[in-house]
Amino acid sequence: MALIHGITVFQDFGDVNSVGNVDPEGQFVISTRVRCGRSMEGYPFNPCLTEAQYKEMEEKVSSTLSGLEGELKGTFYPLTGMAKDVQQKLIDDHFLFKEGDRFLQAANACRFWPTGRGIYHNNDKTFLVWCNEEDHLRIISMQMGGDLGQVYRRLVNAATDIEKRIPFSHHDRLGFLTFCPTNLGTTIRASVHIKLPKLAADKKKLEEVAAKYSLQVRGTRGEHTEAEGGIYDISNKRRMGLTEYEAVKEMHDGILELIKIEKSL
Ligand code: ADP
Ligand code: MG
């Protein structure tokens, strides 16, 4: 439980130092990422935002983030005016959201695009914030390899810092409010990019085993994409009805099991 802007928020990041590396030998995991979503208090979701609100929010986000220091220090890059090749490289390298997502379009979430959209990141691109893609903010920590502990600690550090600077929409029962109901609650998605060639030889079997550990399998470029070069994005499926720590731990424990199975095949 935490007191944020005078509101009691049921948030529990747990003992961040108890989370370790899911693949210390670097045999299976290519990269690790943990993200959470946040909505800015006083603003509606995408379908109801005006163009002026988009601009105002981008300004608030970029000026607020410019106050971050240390490892979180970085630069805000608006999508408006970004060179196409720069944008595409950021997407291909898994740092930036894709453009023209048909599900977001169908949900009326892409009005006035690219106005008000942007990305903030530190120099190493280990800490990133998406502005006004699906959620007002997506706070992201990621790096190469399987050190989930380091990635999680950075995410917690960042979310805690940003929460002090921007008031976010939170509901006593639903948790943090997000545009997609599947993200309500903790909003945490902890994922690895992983190669499990033996287990994944049978995609159905991979899905089945993942489901047993409450994990979700996505393609290499995220939701609604296919695996490329045998690389899968595997993450915790549950975000509601458990704590932030438990969501990450669920992914941690499940990935260890998948690796155990892969080794036994
Ligand atoms: P989300 O909406 O949960 O943030 P998406 O499925 O929309 O995630 O994917 C967003 C981007 O994040 C994609 O480019 C995807 O490849 C990338 N991504 C997700 N997990 C990882 C990971 N563990 N390592 C590197 N990139 C990742
Ligand atoms: Mg997404």
From TrEMBL:
Q: What is this protein called?
A: arginine kinase
SUPFAM superfamilies for the chain: Glutamine synthetase/guanido kinase
Keywords noted in UniProt: ATP-binding, Kinase, Nucleotide-binding, Transferase
Which GO MF terms are attached to this record? Answer: arginine kinase activity; ATP binding; creatine kinase activity
Q: Which residues form the Phosphagen kinase C-terminal domain?
A: 28-265
Asked if the Swiss-Prot or TrEMBL record annotates the protein with the keyword ATP-binding, the reply is yes
Domain of life of the source: Eukaryota
Q: Where does ATP bind?
A: 31-35, 94, 138, 189-193, 218-223
UniProt record similarity statement: Belongs to the ATP:guanido phosphotransferase family.
Q: Which GO terms describe its biological process?
A: phosphocreatine biosynthetic process
Record InterPro entries? ATP-guanido_PTrfase, ATP-guanido_PTrfase_AS, ATP-guanido_PTrfase_cat, Gln_synth/guanido_kin_cat_dom
> Per the UniProt record, which EC number(s) apply here?
2.7.3.3
GO terms for CC?
A: extracellular space
The keyword Phosphoprotein appears for this protein: no
User: What Pfam families does this protein's entry cite?
Assistant: ATP-gua_Ptrans
Query: Which PROSITE patterns does the record match to this protein?
Result: PHOSPHAGEN_KINASE, PHOSPHAGEN_KINASE_C
